[in-house]
Every structure is written in structure tokens, then in C-alpha cells.
## 1
Amino acid sequence: MLTQNLGYPRIGSHRELKKICENYWAGKTGYKNVLQVGKNIRHENWKLQQEAGVDIIPSNDFSFYDHVLDHSLTFGAIPKRYNEVILKKGNSELDLYFAMARGYQKDGLDVVAMEMTKWFDTNYHYIVPEFYKDQPFKLFSTKIIDEFYEAKQLGIITKPVLIGPISYLLLGKEKEAGFEKIDLIKNLLPVYLDILTRLVSLDVEYVQFDEPFLTLDLSEKEQKAYEYAYKEIKKAFPKLKIVLATYFEGLDNNLDLVTSLPMKVLHIDLVRAEVQLAEVLRRLNEKTILSLGLVDGRNIWKNDYDHSLSLINHALQKLGEDRVWIAPSCSLIHCPVDLENETDDKHLSPEIKQWLAYARQKVAEVVTLKKLITNESPASTTQKLEENKKALSNRKTSNLIHNPIVKERVANLDDSDAERLSPFSLRKVKQQSLNLPRFATTTIGSFPQTTEVRSWRAKFKNGTYSQKEYDTLIAEETAKAVKWQEDIDLDVLVHGEFERNDMVEYFGEQLDGFAFSKNGWVQSYGSRCVKPPIIYGDVSRPHPMTVKWTAYAQSLTSKYMKGMLTGPVTILQWSFVRNDQPRSLTCTQIALAIRDEVSDLEKAGIKIIQIDEPAIREGLPLRKAEWQHYLNWAVKAFRISASSVKDETQIHTHMCYSEFNDIIQNIADMDADVITIETSRSQMELLDAFANFQYPNEIGPGVYDIHSPRVPKREEMVHLLKKAKAVIPSDQLWVNPDCGLKTRGWDETKKALIEMVEAAKEMRKTE
Ligand code: GLN
Ligand code: ZN
């Protein structure tokens, strides 16, 4: 029995990768230093896995920015617009690579970056390959071969990791009409064969092909492509040991296809889809090894050894020792690096810490599970088993986790708790008492989080500022923002969110049941890392979270001040969530906490309250068959959070997502009085989903893109609003930017909003 790892975090245990890359981009360090830091991280990772006792250690899991982009560079899938970057004297392969990731604006060249999107249902973003009709591929970067050789020099025979050819193509996007990306397999496959030839000449033993698409719904054409590609590989390299890695879901109806593919080892995800084990064991080919993905690569909880051992034993009975491997469920890049870096009890108490495992600890868990089965060093492993049992039983019964009041409140919920008092048509009449003009103007919530504002928070956190000093600064900044919004004549004001570090963290820090790590960084994209909150226990709200600042801002103006909250689904989606109860239940608990906040805001005299849900769409399960179940509980959670108020109180929600067509019914079911959405970059096309559906409630389609500092012209916004008015009745329309303005500077923000207000006034004249 062997252990394998599918991928180790590459950010470095102290985010060394982030630091060196950002220094390089800022021109503060040289090319060689960047390469050296990359090398150090790889060596550290390999050594650490070797010392932990992992049998099959991955290579090519390192990346300076993104592993999908690495593959595009490897295969020479480089869009033509980068030719000038390639040709420019002095530019290295790394410069080209970063140009593809981030765009290139230097010395008169101005080339835009490639698009970025989410990696399946994770919070990791990859650079989307761009495909053209009949596109040729050729081996451009030899990274994968170089890194295998590099490890070999250190005496470690690694298992190179490649995104499989079909998944690579499916991850990309057709940039012109007249072909399907999957047709490119014939052009692409020779490059894979080229790479394999080189690896084989260096005595590679195992090669891992990541094919996560095998856990998704596949068309017939895609299934055929799978058969074709893997048969060709087998034909060219009959002795190569292929590890076919699937993860994030079960194989389900693709199981026949998968078992027909030539491979030495099949890896399956038993954390996401434990139920598939029995069927896979029944149908697996006689000689195939099964790699059991037992240790959760997507979360931070300790493995339940007893449970894993029972699954391993089940597999062993059927397959025997030689045909069972043990592994994490997927690559560990979705976990923080090392729990040992959490040295601050204020952040993570020892009680909570004993329930957790980060990547390094997960690698050790995989090895311990093997030793428990093979009876290697029985004394120390038995002790580890006992410690594991103790930690898990402590977690089951801890007072930190279980709050009977919360459980009772959830149990007593009934359907009426998710219903506003009256239907929207009646609420709309009552809300006319708000006396808002047509094309009412507002913003999405945040105003610029300047370096200064962030420095106040840093100084407050490190004790330089007292609470009082910090509050005074925030109050002044808020007052300035309120005054300025009045001056330019916006209709519905916001307080600006200056007191918030992040839209989830700010709430998590005030809710019971949440913990915050100090070093739990996970790569989000490129050098950007996030530190998701950890939801470990029943969630409740010990005190109001936003009332003070909202009421203060309201007291400064006679206009309406919009209360600003993050919705339950978004809080859930952007956190590490407890795994001892269904996500839907945790979401409902958060919804009740937000509901209490909504009630308190209403009591404090706030008449308009926005509950942001930008993450509703990204929570969709990978398989369509499960969408409805998710949408049911997610929409219900939002409704629970929003439904305690009077008819006259206006509830807004906000989403910055580009696709509404397939979930428009569910968005309507959320029944917010007003929804603001991102639409400007698609020239209002995204509004069509709402128009076709005859969406009944009010809508604020974003009239300008907040991702760029460019100040939009008044006529452009009038033009967009006219387009909107052509498809949505004007008494349903609001005027607002695409999203919050926290990443913008004040200068461009002011100019843009002045124009926006004037654009709305122009629209009113035409009424
Ligand atoms: N209210 C938040 C803000 O303006 C919304 C952010 C978001 O949609 N991502 O920053
Ligand atoms: Zn947004």
C-alpha cells in the first residue's frame, strides 16, 4: 500500500511567493531572485513530504501564478497579442508569463491580460486558455520536465502532475466562432506525447493526469474525446503508469467511461462523494489500483481516522494491499500551509486548534493512516490514533460549538419566517411613502478604502490608536462621505464601509461560532491570498454589528441612509465551514443572525437595508441535478434574513455576477424589493435575463464599470439607461455603479458619480 499527494501549496509557508512576485512587478528585485525563491519553495515542499513519509510526491504542482496558465505556456497556447512582448529585447519567459496573467503596460506597449475565472467550485481563480480555430500547439515551456529533473537531482523521483488533455481544453474558451474547443484534441495531443517522451527518457515512473471534468456532466462528444486521448497515450507509452486523478465530485454516470480508460491508478474523491466507493469497487478493472481521497483537501478539519480506516478496510477486502493507495481528496492548494504557524492563542485557541489540520498536517495524516493499516511503528501510531479520537470527541461535545438556544431557534422556524408580510405588489405601493424619484440613484456600499483608512485600522490593531481615536477617524471619514453624497445630490446614501476590513470578516469577527486564523492563507489568484474565517460552531449574534455606524451616518442627513449587510450565503461561501452538519443548516443559523441585525437597523430608524449576496451563484453545485436543492435552501436563507421587517422597509440585494439566465427564477424568489447587479461591461445585455423573465421587482443595472479607474462619460451612461429602459419599465429602474467602490480612488469616484447623477436627471426629463 502506498501514499500519494496530488499537490502541495506553492505560496510558501510565509507567503514568500507573494512577496517576491510583487517585488518583481514593482521593479524592486531581479529575475534571478524570483527563480531562486521558486526553487526554494519547491525544494522545501519536496523535502517536507519526503520526511513526512509520502511515497509518491508530486512535481509541477508549483506555479509562479497559476497552474492552468503554466500549461498554456507549456503548450504554446499564447494569444497573438503577446507577440510584441515576446519579441521585446530583454523580456524573459517569465515576463511573457506575467504579461499573460496581468497584462503588459510598459514602454509604449499596452496588451490586456487573459481572462480569469473560478476553478470549479473553489475560490481559486485560474487564467482561462484562449482557443482559436485550428490552433496549433507546440512545446513552448519545458517547466514540467525541468522540475522533474530538478527533484531527481535531489534524489526524489516525483510524479509530474499535468492537467489532462480533455480537462485542459474544457477549461478554456473559444475566442472565435466556427469550431468547438474539444476538436483541438488532435492538435494538442502530440504535445502531451512529446512531454511524455522527455519524461520517460528521464525515467519517470508515474505521471498524474488531473481530469476533474470526469466528475461533471459530459456530452457524448466529450466522452469520445476522453476515450480517444487516453487510448493514444496508452498506444504510445504502453508501460507508462498513469494516475488518473478525479476530484470535487463523484464519477457517477461517468463510471463506465472512466473504468474503460487505460490507467494504472484511479484516484477518487471520497470526501465529496463517499457514496461512490461501493460502486467503484464493484466496477474497477482487475489490475487498476484505487487511490482513496480520504483527507479533505478543501477544508481545515482533522481527519476522522476511525472513519477513514473503515473505508480503507472496505477497499482492502475487495482489492488487497497492492491495489489500494491513500491520498488527500484533491490537491492541497485549497488549504492553508502549516498549522504550526498559528502560534497566537488570541486568534485560534488551543481548544479549536486541536480540531484543525492544514496542508502539512494533512500530509502527515495520510501517512499515519497507512501506518495504522500496515502496522508500522505501532506504538507511535496507536498513540496518534488515540489523540485523534480524543480531539474529535472533544469537538463533538465542546461548549464552544453547541449552543442550544441557536438549535432551538432553527428548529422552531416555520415557512412564515421566510415570507415578507405582503407580496411585492403591495409593498411597492407602501414604499411609495419613501418618495424616491424615478431613476433613483444610489451606490453599492463601499467608498474608497484608501491607504490612509487602512493604516488607521492597522494602527488600531497594533495598539497605536485607542478605540476612541480610531472611532473618531472613522466618524470623520464617514461624515465627509455623507456630506459629499448630499452635495452631489444622490438619492439614497451609504455610510461608506470605512470601518470594515472585508465584507465577510467584518461580520464573522462579531459573530459567535467564527474563528480567525493568523496565518491561514490560501491562494486566491496569482499573488493574492485570502484568509477565510473558520465557522466552527453554532452561529449567533451577541450584539448589533452595524447599527452604531449606520445610525450615526443617518443622523447626519435627512436623506435615506441605506443599511449595509453581507448575506448568509456569501458569508458561508467565503468561509471554511464546519463539516459536522449540513451547510444548509449553518447557512440558516447565519441567516438568523443577519435577520436580527436587519430588525435592529429597522428599529434604529433605517428604512432601506441592503443584504449583499454576490456569492449566491458561485455556490451552485458542480452537477446540475443538485442545483435545485442548493438553490432552495440558499434562497430560503436569504429570505429568512430579509423577512422580519415591515412592508414599508425596503430590502435591497446586490450581486456582481455575469450570468443570470439559468437562475433567474430563483433570483426572483429571493423577493428583494430592489436588486442591483453588474451589467455595464456587457452593455446591459445581462439585463435581458430579467427582461425576458418579466422580473417584477425593482432593478439597478450597473451603469459603469468600477474595475477600472476610467471615468465614464455622462452620455455613455444615458445610453445604457436608455437601453435598460427599452426592456424594463422605467418605474422599476434604479441608477448605480456595477459594484462597491472600495478599490477606487476618490478622484475618479467623485467625477464618475457626479456624471452618474446627472445622467439619471437627464433620464427623468425624458419621462
Ligand atoms: N457592499 C459591498 C461593497 O460595496 C458589496 C461588495 C461586493 O458585491 N462584492 O463593497
Ligand atoms: Zn458587487
Note: The first helix runs from residue 16 to 25.
## 2
Amino acid sequence: MRMVFRWYGEGNDTVTLDQIRQIPGVEGVVWALHDVPAGEEWPMDKIRAVVDAANRYGFHTEVVESVNVHEDIKLGLPTRDKYIENYKRTIEKLGQVGVKVICYNFMPVFDWVRTDLNRKNEDGSTALFYEKAKLENIDPMELVEKITRNSALTMPGWEPERLQDLSRLFELYKGVTEEDLWRNLEYFLQEIIPVAQRSGITMAIHPDDPPWSVFGLPRIITNQDNLRRFLQLVDSPANGVTLCSGALGANPDNDVIAMVYEFADRVPFAHIRNVKIYENGDFVETSHRTQDGSLDIYGIVKAYHDKGYTGYVRPDHGRQLWGEQCRPGYGLYDRALGIMYLWGIWDSLERAKGEQA
Ligand code: DNO
Ligand code: MN
């Protein structure tokens, strides 16, 4: 596995490249142009600036997360074609600077959703929390307003310019079914996958987080059957999945280990993290350690190892530890600890393999 670390960019992240350099075994940063609105073509000078900054610290920039998909594409509106053209141009430019994987998602309106970004744990750390009953009973506007008011930095997908549009978007999604979304996704893939393939890039869709419908909006990248269906929509090596253990694993019916065994060859990029699921459907993000959550992180890493996995891996969200002030889920400390746990498992599996041979 090739370890990478998400970095939001100079001036946009509390974590610096200087710090990331001190985490053992990190070879690259996972990046994006966070100030370019979804649907617009990424300017080459801005792309080069991030690549150069990362390269100065010895990091590669082979993984991008995310190039966001404009809502008109997900909605299948006639205006989608111009946004798809922009998307293709961005893919080509990223290919020119050596990008190998582009992570994106196809979730209507919202990216990942939680009800509390600073849930206090018993040990004094805080974590991202999802309270099922609260989400089911709150108006989305109210939740968004509450969350953005309490957070200095916005969550990805919760950018102010998108959220201003919230009620208009909800109107547009009325009557859009899961099957409509599948059709719109297929249309998009048929357009972009050949461009990605020519550019030496694998597109890697991120599963829906949480993997079920929220606020009545359709969500389709939610389970093993749907991942299989997704991969068959366009059966090309350039059409892949970002297998996110924490996103998929929030539904106890999902067997993440089975998904690794089935799909590893189509997973250029893995997000590995743990979640603790409660009986009432709530979940909280925990440390990466197997014993701390509901997911068998050891088993997941072992599955990748058994498959001879050579793709990129990043720790996903972390808790906020030791009073760190940071972007929710994206502090330095817990993600660094997560990396050491993942390497610990991986290195002992490697050693055991060598000793058996
Ligand atoms: C959360 C991330 C997601 C992911 C997007 C990919 O931290 O895993 O926001 O970046 O869904 O498009
Ligand atoms: Mn993820």
C-alpha cells in the first residue's frame, strides 16, 4: 500500500507540509483546488502551484480528492454538457501533471453528513457524530446553519455558495429517483471515462456517507451490490472506486472485508478508518484501532494485503486530540496515529509472509 495524506493546501489547512513530512511512510499528498467551484475548469497555474509546493517537500501529487461534480450533472439537466466538458478538460490537465487517481462523489446536494462535529468522548477528545433521530427530524437548512455557525472552517461540500442555493436544489431534486440518478451517473461516466483512460487516470467514486438516503435525497453508492452495478456501468480499468471503510461501514449490513476481496482490483484508492455504531443507528468516528470501533480494521488491512494491494491508502477522518484546532475530522494527530496503526498491521503481515516463504 502507498500511504498518502489529505492536505487542503497552503493557507487552507491548519496542518503544514512540514508536519506531514514527519509522519512515517507518507509519500504523497491528496489535494484539490478547493476554491474552484464545482463545474468550473481547473486553471493550470493553480494546479501547478499546488504540485510545486508539494514537490518541494518531496511529496507526489498523484491523488486528487475531489473534482466535484456539478449538481446539473447529477440532476441530468440539459446544461450538464458544458459542465461535463469542463470536467474533461480538468481531467486532461491533471493527467499532464502526473495525476493517477481522481476521487469524486455522486451524492446529491451534500457530501458527507454529520449532526455534530465536536462530539465529546469520555477521554476528552472530540469526534464527528451522526445522530439518526436528530437527522430525521431536523430541517436540512437548520442543520446546515447550526453546523456552519459552530465551525470556523466549512466541511467539504458545504461551501457557502452551494448552500445559499439549498432550497432551490431541494426543489430540483423533487421526483428524482435512484434510477434517475443511476442513469445520470452512467451518462457522466460514458463521457469522462474514455478521457480519463487516455490521460492515464483512474476515476474513483467515493461511496455515499452515510450510505443511505438523507433528507429524502436519493443515494446509490451505498452497498456491495450497488458497487458491483456501478463498476459494470462502464466496465473499464479507468472506472474505479475509492473504497471508504468508514463511509460504507456505518451501515452494519455492509461487510467491508468482503468488498475488499471482491473489488480490490478496481480500488486505486482506499480510505481506512473506524466507526462505532450504536444500536439505535447513531455512529461516532473513533480511533483507527479495531477494538475502539465496530469495524475490523485489522481484517480490512489483511484483506488488502491478501490481495497484494499496491494502491494508495489514506487514513480518513480522525478525532480531535490534545486541544488541536483544525478542520473537523482533519487534524494532524489522530490521522498520524491512524497511519502508524495501519503500518503496524501491514508491516507485521509482510514480515509474517516473509517468514512463511
Ligand atoms: C470526507 C471525504 C469525502 C470525500 C468526497 C469525495 O472526509 O471522505 O468528503 O472527499 O466525498 O468526493
Ligand atoms: Mn472517505
Note: The chain has a mean pLDDT of 94.
## 3
Amino acid sequence: MNEEKHVRRIVIAGGGTAGWMAAAAIARTLGPAVDLTLVESEAIGTIGVGESTIPPLVNYNRLLGINEADFMRATQATFKLGILFDDWKDVGTRYFHSFGLTGKDHWSAGFQHFWMHGRAKGHEQPYDDYCLELVAALDGKFAHLPDDRMNYAYQLDSGLYARFLRRMAEKDGTKRIEGRIGRVELDAESGDIAALVLDGDRRIEGDIFLDCTGFRALLIEGALHAGFDDWTHWLPCDSAIALQTPNVRPPVPYTRAMAHDAGWQWRIPLQHRSGNGLVYCSRYLDRDAALERLLGNIEGEPLTEPNFLRFTSGVRRRQWYRNCVAIGLSGGFMEPLESTSIHLIQRAVLRFVRMLPAGRVSARDVAEFNDQQGQDMEQIRDFLVLHYKVTNRRDSAFWRQCADMPIPDSLTQKIELFRETGRVFRRNEELFAENSWVQVMMGQGIEPQSYHPIATKLRDDELEKLLATIRGQVSDTVAKLPEHHAYVARYCGAE
Ligand code: FAD
């Protein structure tokens, strides 16, 4: 094998959450097998938002050998069991998308079929009562349970997470260079990236470059013009204002997503403060009105100046192009409703490590990476669009636009299948499993017209026993759980 052709020099451009997540994982996994350099500019800074996550991050940290309590102390993290959605189906309604499983599935049919049969037989207890994580969240309870029986994620300060990972990555051999990338130099023959040229003309050469420069996408778009698919016609919000407030009550183990007439508002409680943000569609709400709305619906006085952000929901057409891989916001962004951005970073980093070329970059690897990453993004997109499309809200031009918009065929199939039969299938390792789809589809107002006949196989007393047993297990377990905030304080050693 020709040694010269080996990918040894990996250069990461950008040191936000994406850059340092990539550096930490690559340095820890490959160690001295690669020569890893990260360039970032303190003067440019990072986007400074991104606080709510989903459960796979727990595994990412485990994979990197991170001690959870250390991580939570360093990032001021709390536990997250799901998202409470207010005013999405209709003003005045709410539902919860939890991370757990609801009830007990049979191999032939999900629990929702048995619950629907129960309802037809007069059992009125809500679907929510059968989900441990959901009941625990709304009760403000949390604990680690044996066998990972409590499925959770974190609410964290992503800037602190990047700093925490930086310490790890540097210890594991990553070289950090402070400086502003002024120019990206292409190889005249191959068209690949040859080097990053910093202000002052310092050159950083590499074999492969990870573009973690955020929305700027300096390498993948600025230099290589990989192209962008705009998804604004499906995800119309394009603006956000973020600010932080003190905690006026103990932090709860869930994120809130409160719809308003031109978008929605988040509230994310960390240990030491809360993150707040208004997401909106600038066609229907101007900046001043958006700020006024946000300031009118926060708890406590703001701790920070408002951070105004603009974005375009959509994806880079090629996530990996030539010798450049886009990771993080440079690869695309779908608005933060289901907290999926940091997860997409994680997926891209792990995928990249799995497909690290042995010699030259292989076109097959690139195609595989782009297919897999693209599929993740489309599946997440469909799940997000569901929240806007399926609603009874028609009280504003924004919601009427959402109700009227054409949606991807893949989503139509999922919605209509569930509406007709109560069935939902997880395809191709899709991120959001059946439980998520069922909770959100029912929460947004879809009433399935039928359910699987297997549910009717149960005698009335068997059905009653099944439902009562699951509810009992959930409520007994939750009753014994500690308060979330007390558990976090103890776990992180603050008590
Ligand atoms: P950035 O943080 O922007 O980092 C870019 C890096 O590139 C910086 O280090 C910068 O200095 C460097 N850089 C740029 N140009 C140059 C240059 N010329 N020279 C040198 N360095 C340069 N995600 C979630 O998972 N959960 C959430 O709840 C969530 N909420 C969000 C809310 C909003 C409104 C938005 C917009 C995003 C949200 N995200 C969320 C996404 C999340 O913020 C990002 O995915 C995450 O922070 C990663 O950002 P990044 O590292 O790609 O980019």
C-alpha cells in the first residue's frame, strides 16, 4: 500500500459544538493513527444556542468514555424525558412527546391498538398514563433505573459542552490553532481542498477537511459549492431570538415548545438558568413584535441580551464532497423543534469515523455517507413537518399556510396509514421510533379510524388486567422516584 496516499492529516475548520464533538471522537478513537488539527476563531465565536438534546447523546458520551456526572457538572446539564407541546393541535391543548415506550407492544401490533380497543370498551384513562418517562416528567421526577429502563437525554449548555470536549480532545492529541480562515486553497489539478489559509498567510494543509464553520459553510459551500436544498416550503420558520433567564423554579426534566400564531417558543431549564427562544416566520411576524412576544412570556428578568438569528431550513446537497465533509450547521439545519441538530452532528461524526478512508477518498464511501446522512435528514424533516401540517389551528395566516402546504409523499403515507389503520412502522433505522410518531400524531389530532384485530382477541377481563397492570407499574415506579432537581444536585455532587 502506498503510505503517501493514507489519510493522515485531518483538519477540522471551526470549533463550535460540531468541531469539538468531531475532534473529541476522532482523537479518542484513532489517537496517533491520525494527525488532527482544529482551527477556530475566538473573534468570530460560535452560534451560542443549542441546549436540548435527544437520547442517543447518552451513548455518544459513553462511547467516548465520558463520566456522566463530570459531564453534567461541566455543562450545567439537567435530564430530559421529552417535550411538552402547548397549543399545537389547538390553542388551549397540550400533549407530551416522551422518550420512552408507551405500554407494551405485541410483535404484531403496537400498544396503541390495545389502548384504542380499551377506549372502545369504555376504559377512559389517557394514553399518556401508560408511559413511564412521560408520567415521571410531568411529576418532575427522575432517577437512573436498572437496565436503562428510563430513557433520557440532556438539557445542556452546548458552549460548555464544546469546552468540555475541547479539554478531552486536546489531551488526546488534537492540535488547536487560533486564527481566522481567510481563504480556502484548492489543488489546481484535482479540485480538492489543499489547505486553509489563515489571516497572516499561515497555511494548514490536510488530506481531509471537516467543515464545522457553522452557517458560513466556508469550505463545503464557499470553496466547493456543494449546493443547498431549501426546505422552507415545508418548514417555514426562518428566524429566532434566544435569551437566558434565571430559574424561578426548580428545573423540570423536559423542554417546552409553546406554539404561537407565527411559530413557537422554547423553554429549556438547565441547572443554573433557563434557555428561552422564540422561533418564528418572518413573513408573519417582525423582529420587534417577536422580541416583545418573547419578553412577554419569560419567567424572571433576562440575564443576557437577545441573540437574533436567521436561518434557512434545508440541507447541503452533498454532505461529503471531494475531500470535505460538512458536519453541523454547515451541512444543513432544520429548525430546533425536536432538538435534532446535535444529534445529526453525532451521526455524521460516527459515520465519518466508520468510513475513514484507508487510502484515497473512495467515491463509494462518499456515496454511502451522503445516502445515509441524507436519509436521516429526510426522516427528521418529515417528523418536523408533521407538527405543522396536522393541526386544527387556522387562527392565523401562518397556520393556514401550514395546513394548506403540500407535504412530502413519504409523510403523506405515514399520516394516512396511521389515520386509516392506527399503524406506524419504523423504517431503515429511522431516528424517531413508533412511539414518537404515535404520540405526536395523536397529540396533533389524528384519530385512527380502526385498530388491529388482534386487540379484540383479548377477553374483557384480560384487556382490563393488561391496562391496569401497565398503569399500576408506571404509577408505582414514579411514586418511588426522587424529585428531578434533587437527584441532579446529588448526582452532580452539589448536595
Ligand atoms: P457554530 O457554533 O456556529 O460554530 C462555527 C465555528 O466555526 C466557530 O468556532 C467559529 O469560530 C468557526 N468559524 C467560522 N468561520 C470561521 C473562520 N473564517 N475562521 C476560523 N473559524 C471560523 N441543536 C440542538 O441539538 N438542540 C437545540 O435545542 C438547538 N436549538 C437551536 C436553536 C436555534 C435558533 C438554532 C439556530 C440552532 C439550534 N440548534 C440546536 C443547533 C445547534 O446550535 C448547532 O447544531 C450546534 O451549536 C453546532 O453548531 P456548529 O458547531 O455547526 O456551528
Note: The chain has three domains: 3-51+157-229+313-361, 102-154+382-480, 239-310.
## 4
Amino acid sequence: LKELYPEDLLNVSKELTEGEVKFLKQLNDLLESKYRDSINDHWINATIPEGFFEEMGKLDYFNNPLLFEGREGARMASQMFQFFLSYTVARFDVSLVTLLGVHQGLGHNAFLFGGSKEQVAHYIPKLQSHELRTCFALTEPEHGSDVAGGLETTAKREGDKWIINGAKKWIGGANVSDVIPLFAVDVETGKPKGFIIRPEQEGVDIDIIENKIALRIIPNANIHLKDVVVEEADRLQNINSFKDIAKILYSTRAGVAYMATGAMAGALRATLDYVTKRKQFGKEISKYQLIQEKLAMMQGNLSQAITLSAQLARMQEKGEYDEVATSTAKMMNALRLRESVAMGRGITGGNGILAEYDIARFFSDAEAVYTYEGTHEINALVIGRALTGDSAFI
Ligand code: FAD
């Protein structure tokens, strides 16, 4: 464990089972051996490493017996494992963990929670084995934080069919998805519904958002929908209100808190690597007190985030899923991540703005983590609502 997570100074990872550690080690070795040399180039060129999805599929995360030891009848890995899974990939690269997150988290859960028994039986095994790729299409050009009440994409029922019109923005991995769960308002009832869209369908036009300064490896896309015809059989039968969509969002918000923690570890690692090599005034800069104080703060932020994430995982494991705890972890870990990457970027001097030194990638990617899955302010308002009993935003 010390070798796998040397930065876990409070020994939280000791709570993982032997099987889980073995799996995480395999995952970490795979990332390091296959993608280490090319990851910064992929970031610069905005390309997904070839075969990444297939490699992740081969790890068979949803069926790997290493993960179910002692978990009676469970087909779900432990929440502590889920935390360290996200952490480990994020420590390597935040785009890759986001790509997995939209597929295995938001997209997968849209089918799992939103699908009928038949839809779940048909799609979930294919999504879990990565035979089918998916994403999550909720945000619109004019509606991000206020998407709950603001959805403008419409669905009009005509017999056994629905006609969808509108637009989506920021949809991670939409262009590399086979099936897209997409949300639109039923013009008759005014309530949101979920639909399974296929990129090749007539009336669906997907274009990639260019020139992002964060998460360059994961493509984010605009989806334009013009009179797209969807069969009633391709409507996600259990999405009938925004509450149903919110359930999916909350199910994965914890994952973003975990990613933020892993990203902090990645930033610390890149910074430590630099300070032990870079000499100024005749000595490695790691030997200077002001540098060590910043490293200690980065470690402190990370230890706090690991502790907070682990407690969230423990609560979830016990079925104590809590909106406020999740929003607190997302808000605080993303905030501390932003602080940590700025310190790391400062410590690495001019080289810190060059992609080849890794820290620039974490520095930029932190900006996306800060914004998606509920911005800082929106998560603060969730907490504020719990504290005061007054909703300041819905
Ligand atoms: P806005 O909602 O316009 O907010 C702008 C600012 O105003 C923010 O600082 C916000 O906190 C603040 N604000 C808004 N309302 C209030 C208020 N009431 N009080 C105080 N402050 C407020 N969406 C998907 O559906 N699928 C995806 O796969 C996906 N991937 C994404 C990937 C990336 C890299 C990014 C950047 C976004 C992604 N999103 C995705 C969208 C994401 O969820 C939204 O960006 C997010 O919800 C914020 O919406 P917005 O960007 O429109 O900002």
C-alpha cells in the first residue's frame, strides 16, 4: 500500500480489502505502463488514447471477483473501492477519469435508475462490459445551474413516437457514444422525460467544442436535435420528473469529490518530482523552507480531502446517502484542489506552464472539476438550504 499510495499519510487506504488493492495496483500499473509517456501529448492534441476504453473493459470492473470477496450477493464494489478507483485514475489524469465517470457513473446510472426492467436488462450488461459506450446529456446552451426548471429541449408525443427538438451543450464523450441518455420536457405535461438517442439518428447533429483549456483529452460536444424521432420503447420509462434526474446526479456527485482528491495527489506528485530535481542558488529547491511549507499545505489539503472522501464513502456504504455530505465533499475538495494546483504551479516556476511537466495539466483541469456536477455556488446553496431551511435557488 505504501508503494501504491505513498501520499496517504493517514493510512485511509488500509480500509481497502486485499482484492481491492490488487485490482487498484493492476489499474495503476496499466495507466503508468501504457499511457505515461503519451498522456501530455494527448492533452495537447485533444485525443483519447487509443484502446483506452477497451483496456478499461478488460479490467472487468463490474464483474471482477477480486472486488466482491466477502460482499454477499453484491454485484457492486465497496464505496471505499469506488473512491480509490476514481482517485487512482484522477491522480494519473483528470480527463480520463471524467471520461470513465460519464460512462460508468452518470450515463450508466441514467439507464440503471431511469430504465424499465427490460431496458436495464438489455443495456446495463453491455454498458458494464464497455461493449456500448454512453454519456449524459442534460445541460443546455442557456441552462446550466438552473437546468432543473429551465430545460428548453422539447419532446412531443405523436402516437408511439416522440419528436425531440432542442440543443445540449458540454456533453462529455457524446461523439464517442453509442447511446445517449438525453433529457427533454414533455410539452404536454411540462415534466422532464429521458430518451435514448443514437448519434447516427436523423436530425441529430453533434459537434465538438474546440479550444478548451481544461480536460482536453475528453471531447465535450454540442448536440443539436431537429425533429428527432424516438420510439416510446426508447424512452427511459422511469424518468418522469426532475427528481428522477437529480437522483442520477446525486449518485455521482460523490465521484467528483473523489476525482478532485485524486487530482490533488497527481498535482502533489508532479510538484514533488520537480522540486527534487530543480536546483536554484546551488541547491535543490526542495531544501528551502518556503517550498516545504507549500508542499506541506498541498499534502494537508490532500489529507483533508482523503479523510472527507473516505467518510462520505463509509456513509454511502451504510446506505446513509446524504445530499449535504456529498455537496460538502464536492465543494470543499474542488476548492482545495484549486488551491493546491495553484501552489504546485507556482512552485514549478516557468516550467509549470509547460505541459511536459504535468502540473500544467492538473492546474487547467482543476477548473473543470470546480464547475461541473454543481458549481461551488450551487453546492454551497444545497448546504445553505440545509442550514437555514430556506432554498435560495429553487
Ligand atoms: P452557469 O449556470 O451559467 O453559472 C455561471 C456562474 O453563476 C457560476 O459561477 C455559478 O455558480 C453561478 N450561479 C448560477 N446560479 C447561481 C445562483 N442562484 N446563486 C449564485 N451563483 C449562481 N453537462 C452535462 O449534462 N453532461 C456532461 O457530460 C457535462 N460535462 C461537462 C464537462 C465540462 C468540462 C464542463 C465545464 C461542463 C460539463 N457539463 C456537463 C455542464 C456542467 O454541469 C455545467 O457547466 C454546470 O452545471 C454549470 O453550468 P454553466 O456552465 O451553464 O454555468
Note: The beta strands are 154-158, 161-172, 180-186, 192-197, 204-208, 220-231, 235-236, 279-280, 283-284.
